[in-house]
Design brief:
The protein contains 17 helices and 15 strands. The protein is elongated, with a radius of gyration of 25 Å. It starts with a helix and ends with a strand.
């Protein structure tokens, strides 16, 4: 749990710092992660690991092992559904949600949840104007980091205690731990890290996070002087909360963790950042106001193209200019009929804006897609499976579901008390899907458990496991 302790210490130090809301708000993130767990069938994964209650298996982290983590979670209400009791116990699902809830609890880490697929850049703090200096937003702007690590890099960074390395370390211990208590504690740690990784991906479903629209995160979102952030993300939190977040739609499959974030340069399949950036405007990346009063129909497409802040989404060659002269303007919709923006012609000028109703239409479309990407990444984290066959006191272990590269295979025997002891190890160079990794004698016991730690055939780090009852 050392990585989580490091995280919690940083959270405690930064708890009182003024900051803008950098991401989907906590209720939205928790709801997205919950929907991802359901769509990825995390319940079955946990049962295969030997946690018979699945998502509702009680897992205990003794508070003395991670006091700062418990202090950080104590900032949330127990009614939120991810705060452990005084014993340090809550369900597996709750630990997953806890990781999602605290992943951006400091300004420094929140800044690492941005990624512009057109440039590969992450968060950059916008410079403040004289007006900003006279407003309460100046305080939040000053507290924000100057730069952030791009989100796909952050989850793989060694500086991130709740990134992929933290997940794999705890996941390995959740299989290799000698006692049920040790494995329970490690599984909780793995789930916290997994929730934080899903959070980093989920933020890329918010248009401002992928269109370099950093200023959107300093907009006032309530009458409170210091309450600044993304109006789009605040609307989603108000409209759906946690329990109203819609279920995942399609669950994408990718070969690497990075490919869930972006396909740029690595795959023809779009990552979530690619999908979001190409389909939606954000508050400060709408088309510019342009003069169209004396522009004829033939020249209009070129004028509209020049008004774009970014190439996509593109504007149609024809707009409803007569309807746009109404005081309320009119609406630009995508091919599915979802509002992209409002526009109005006032005199000779064409202006664009986003209102609450338009952004709520967008969020209703975006949230199920985000939940699907998170489900795909969670299934990817849990992808490692091993098949075990027992004969004459020996266990033959084979890869199942994916090919494996170099790594170490360990086989454990588990007795009737649930205590595991190593029966032997082997060094693996590679194994195709279905190919044998090795045969190891186990002797007596109730179960044989196999653990592989290494890389898969795509070179991605993986923990794979299998479990079989002994005759």
């Amino acid at each position: 749990m050392s990585r989580i302790v490091i995280l919690a210490a940083v959270l405690a130090a930064a708890a009182a710092a003024p900051r803008p809301a950098h991401a989907w708000e906590t209720s939205t993130h928790v709801g997205l992660t919950e929907q991802a767990a359901l769509a990825a069938d995390a319940d079955a994964w946990l049962r295969q690991l030997g946690f018979r209650g699945g998502l509702f298996e009680p897992l205990v982290v003794p508070p003395a092992d991670a006091p700062e983590l418990f202090d950080a979670l104590a900032n949330h209400s127990p009614v939120d559904g991810f705060v452990p009791d005084l014993r340090g116990q809550q369900t597996a699902l709750a630990w997953l949600l806890a990781g999602s809830a605290i992943a951006d609890a400091t300004p420094g880490w929140a800044a690492n949840h941005f990624f512009d697929p057109s440039t590969g850049a992450g968060w950059q703090r916008p410079s403040g104007s004289l007006v900003d200096k006279l407003r309460a937003t100046a305080r939040a702007r000053a507290a924000a980091p100057a730069r952030g690590v791009p989100a796909p890099d952050w989850i793989a960074s060694g500086a991130n205690p709740l990134g992929l390395a933290g997940f794999l370390d705890q996941y390995e211990k959740a299989v290799a731990g000698a006692t049920p208590g040790e494995r329970s504690r490690a599984m909780a740690g793995a789930l916290v890290a997994a929730g934080a990784v899903l959070h980093a991906l989920g933020d890329l479903g918010s248009p401002s996070h992928v269109r370099a629209d950093y200023a959107a995160h300093f907009d006032p979102v309530s009458p409170a002087a210091d309450d600044v952030g993304s109006r789009f993300e605040r609307l989603a939190a108000i409209a759906w909360g946690r329990l109203g977040v819609p279920a995942a739609t399609a669950v994408p499959r990718r070969a690497t963790a990075r490919a869930f974030f972006t396909g740029a340069g690595t795959s023809t399949d779009a990552g979530l950042a690619d999908w979001t950036a190409a389909r939606w405007f954000s508050e400060h990346t709408l088309p510019r106001t342009v003069e169209v009063g004396r522009v004829n129909a033939k020249a209009l497409p070129a004028v509209l193209a020049r008004s774009l802040v970014r190439p996509a989404p593109a504007l149609p060659s024809r707009l409803s200019m007569i309807v746009a002269t109404q005081p309320q303007g009119t609406t630009l919709r995508d091919p599915a009929g979802v509002c992209l923006a409002r526009y109005r012609r006032d005199g000779g000028q064409l202006a664009w804006w986003l209102d609450d109703a338009c952004e709520l239409e967008q969020a209703a479309t975006i949230l199920p897609v985000v939940a699907g990407y998170e489900a795909g990444l969670l299934a990817w984290l849990a992808r490692g499976q091993l098949a075990l066959q027992v004969a004459d006191g020996k266990v033959t272990v084979s890869a199942r579901g994916l090919g494996l590269g170099a790594g170490t295979l360990t086989v454990f025997r588990e007795d009737g008390r649930g205590v595991r002891a190593s029966a032997g190890t082997a060094t693996i160079t590679s194994a195709t899907d279905g190919g044998a990794l090795g045969t190891i004698a186990v002797g007596g016991g109730r179960f044989a458990v196999a653990l592989f730690r290494g890389v898969d055939d795509a070179g991605e780090p993986v923990v794979a496991f299998g479990r079989v009852e002994l005759p």
